Amino acid sequence: MKLVLDTSAILSGMDFAGEVYVPSGVLQEARKSGLDPRLEAVLETKSRVFEPRNRDLRAVSQASLETGDDASLSQTDQEVLALALQLEAAVVTDDYAIQNVAARLGLRYQPALLPGIRRRVDWSFRCRGCGRYWPQTLEACPVCGAEVRRYRRRA
């Protein structure tokens, strides 16, 4: 079984059976977080570092816009999803935004330590001042300047 790990999966210290893949950004994030040298040695020998294709990155970007998770995903998160899409692999992550976009893309996902999401969620963005809805996250409403908040979209 092919598994694509994100940083939270690596830092969990769990041993994953199967073929393990990571984009280089995940290794950089894990090292910045103070990766245990023994864990890094295991990771270096057991995992394969791959970079995702541009077309898969575009598909992830589109899916994250559709779910409303675009502002919640870092570039590395997007690379994890794109690599999983490219390899047709399961994503191992505790990040709910990654799990949500993975579900939108039809990818399998499994949590490392935390419980996973129960169902996919789409988000909308609404101004707290004037009540207008926006298609993506904004720091402030361009109409009235009030805070724009994220809300679960009604099914």
Structure report:
The structure is a single chain. By secondary structure, the chain is an alpha/beta fold. The chain has 2 domains: 2-110, 5'-nuclease (Rossmann fold, 3-Layer(aba) Sandwich); 123-152, Rubrerythrin, domain 2, CATH 2.20.28. Helices cover 39% and strands 18% of the residues. The protein has 6 helices and 8 strands, in the order E-H-E-H-H-E-H-H-E-H-E-E-E-E. The protein has helices spanning 7-11, 24-32, 37-46, 54-67, 75-87, 96-105, and strands at residues 2-5, 19-22, 47-49, 90-92, 109-110, 123-127, 133-134, 148-152. The strands form 2 sheets. It has a 5-stranded parallel β-sheet with strand order 3-2-1-4-5. A 3-stranded antiparallel β-sheet has the order 7-6-8, with no helix packed on it. The longest helix is centred in the middle third of the chain and has 14 residues, at 54-67.
> How do the strands of the widest beta sheet line up side by side?
3-2-1-4-5
Topology pattern, helix = H, strand = E: EHEHHEHHEHEEEE
Mean pLDDT: 86
| CATH structural architecture of the largest domain | 3-Layer(aba) Sandwich
- CATH H-level superfamily title of the largest domain: 5'-nuclease
Total domains, how many?
2
Shape: elongated
Number of DSSP strands? 8
Structural class: alpha/beta
Q: Point out poorly predicted stretches.
A: none
Share in β-strands: 15-25%
